[in-house]
């Protein structure tokens, strides 16, 4: 990489010195930093080289800092942290989100350091520390910093007393926006979803140039520190964007580089799928929260309520939007905790019932007396209960890989998750964060056996954005609460004609679950789609759309 970077830079300098007309932004972008032109023979964008370099610097700093910090076994919950001094240019690193040091500390603590115990003091004293560094040489500075920390903490506690009747200030470390093709501006460095998320990483390059608070060399330090945390310091598991897997002698395009993707193309579906469902978002206040939904199609047409499954949101129905938008009044719901809806209430006891109540509130708001329902996976579970409780509001019901009970037992229900599997997902979400549990939920060996590795990567990248938006609390609402439902008593009470669609390759919800439902529902047809895995409404969208359309119109 270093040899390539030096060679390309020499070529660029020689070219513009020989012909000054080429010293312009367009030539620089095309032939040097983006590598789309052929004048310099660039094979890899120099932007990727810079990202790789900055990542390696951040990785080195994070690794050494993390190793020392962890060797001291700090009680992070009681730590008193002050960051002083200048980092880079005079205006950079003055907030938690823009300070590489703050991000390294947070990740090194495995996110145990409370944000309210971390202060950035750009005007604070900067101690002069000389080698050798000993506890005694540092202890002489303790009084001044302890006084500063206590003064700041004491001031913040005044707010609780003086303004108790007003909303309190709460810090958030998850301030990174998720960006996609519709994003026009950002106010913070965007979240990096994977080592191939070049759209986010290149956007970061622009932000650090335009935002004086940012530090150029620190534009991916937080991502390096996060990878270290997730890998628990195993450097063999770290993927360096712009270096690992990159052939600097080849013109082969880096996966995802320069793409502002608003579609994905799969070999299993003849049409491109838009990653942003092109229907406006509407919201209502109901049941103590904000409920979001998208509406598309003639409002006087037969209504369909589409309910997404875990870990997705309404955008995951894009392939169905294309097929049904002109024929039906489509209501694509964001369940609580997902998409644009508000988060799950902290004290929720029955997640499925909350979702049923929310769907009813949306129907009442839109004055829809009766609708057909399509529910995928965990939302198929919701749709079954709703159809049993609100039989007069349901015209027809379609479920895809639905189950009345997600937890198996050895006596009368041998389908679904074991207790150990549910606990593993819950622990992954609670202890290792959204990245880890998302990786488990979207494991291609488990849920994308029906796609090539390339196609699976596209869908996973799309779904990952929705999962990260949902967050661990929402996903744990399933693994901790909803997955322990036993709704078998509701199944015989469903009166609506029902189409059960299942996947022949499904491990999450095996095909035998659909057979159980067909045998216990009043009016049910069962279709098992061959060579289809769990997310078949995307991976086998063509046949799914035909099945749903035929059933609803019959």
Automatic annotation (TrEMBL):
* Single annotated GO MF: hydrolase activity
Listed under GO cellular component are:
membrane
The keyword Transport belongs to this UniProt entry's keyword annotation: no
Matching entries from Pfam families are given as: Abhydrolase_1, DUF5624
Under SUPFAM superfamilies, the record lists: alpha/beta-Hydrolases
Alphabetical keyword list: Hydrolase
Q: Which domain of life is it from?
A: Eukaryota
Q: Could you tell me which residue ranges the DUF5624 domain spans? A: 1-59
Q: Where is the AB hydrolase-1 domain?
A: 303-540
Name used for this protein in its record: Alpha/beta hydrolase fold domain-containing protein
Q: Which organism is it from?
A: Trichoderma breve
Taxonomic lineage? Eukaryota, Fungi, Dikarya, Ascomycota, Pezizomycotina
């Amino acid at each position: 990489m270093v040899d390539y970077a030096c060679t390309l830079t020499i070529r660029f300098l020689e070219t513009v010195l020989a012909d000054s007309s080429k010293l312009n932004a367009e030539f620089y972008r095309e032939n040097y930093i983006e590598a789309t032109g052929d004048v310099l023979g660039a094979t890899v964008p120099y932007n990727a080289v810079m990202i790789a370099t900055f990542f390696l610097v951040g990785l080195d700093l994070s690794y050494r800092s993390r190793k020392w910090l962890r060797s001291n076994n700090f009680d992070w919950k009681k730590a008193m942290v002050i960051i002083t001094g200048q980092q880079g240019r005079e205006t950079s690193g003055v907030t938690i989100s823009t300070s590489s040091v703050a991000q390294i500390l947070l990740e090194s603590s495995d996110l145990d350091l409370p944000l309210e115990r971390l202060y950035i003091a750009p005007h604070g004293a900067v101690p002069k520390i000389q080698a050798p560094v000993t506890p005694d040489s540092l202890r002489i500075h303790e009084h001044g910093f302890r006084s500063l920390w206590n003064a700041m903490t004491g001031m913040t506690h005044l707010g609780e007393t003086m303004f108790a009747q007003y909303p309190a200030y709460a810090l958030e470390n998850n301030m990174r926006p998720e960006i996609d093709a519709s994003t026009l501006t950002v106010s913070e460095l965007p979240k990096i979803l994977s080592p191939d998320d070049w759209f986010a990483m290149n956007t970061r390059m622009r932000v650090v140039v335009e935002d004086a608070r940012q530090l150029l060399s620190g534009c991916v330090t937080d991502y390096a520190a996060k990878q270290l945390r997730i890998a628990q310091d195993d450097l063999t598991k770290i993927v360096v964007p712009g270096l690992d897997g990159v052939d600097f002698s080849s013109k082969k395009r880096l996966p995802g580089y320069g793409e502002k993707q608003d579609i994905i193309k799969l070999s299993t579906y003849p049409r491109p799928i838009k990653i942003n469902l092109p229907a406006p978002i509407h919201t209502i206040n109901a049941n103590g929260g904000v409920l979001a939904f998208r509406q598309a199609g003639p409002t006087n047409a037969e209504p369909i309520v589409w309910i997404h499954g875990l870990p997705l949101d309404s955008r995951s129905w894009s392939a169905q939007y294309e097929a049904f938008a002109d024929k039906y009044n489509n209501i694509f719901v964001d369940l609580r905790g997902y998409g644009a809806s508000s988060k799950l209430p902290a004290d929720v006891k029955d997640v499925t019932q909350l979702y049923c109540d929310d769907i009813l509130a949306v129907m009442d708001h839109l004055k829809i007396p009766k609708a057909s329902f399509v529910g995928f996976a965990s939302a198929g579970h919701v749709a079954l209960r709703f159809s049993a409780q609100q039989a007069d509001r349901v015209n027809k019901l379609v479920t895809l890989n639905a189950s009345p009970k997600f937890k198996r037992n050895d006596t009368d229900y041998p389908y679904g998750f074991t207790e150990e599997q549910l606990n593993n997902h819950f622990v992954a979400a609670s202890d290792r964060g959204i990245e880890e549990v998302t990786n488990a939920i979207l494991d291609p060996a488990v849920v994308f056996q029906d796609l090539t590795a390339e196609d699976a990567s596209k869908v996973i990248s799309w779904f990952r954005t929705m999962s990260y938006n949902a967050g661990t609390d929402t996903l744990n609402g399933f693994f901790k609460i909803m997955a322990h439902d036993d709704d078998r008593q509701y199944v015989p009470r469903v009166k609506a004609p029902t189409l059960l669609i299942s996947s022949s390759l499904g491990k999450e919800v095996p095909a035998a679950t659909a057979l159980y439902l067909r045998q216990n529902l009043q009016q049910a047809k069962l279709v098992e789609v061959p060579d289809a895995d769990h997310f078949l409404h995307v991976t086998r969208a063509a046949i799914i759309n035909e099945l749903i359309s035929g059933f609803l119109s019959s």
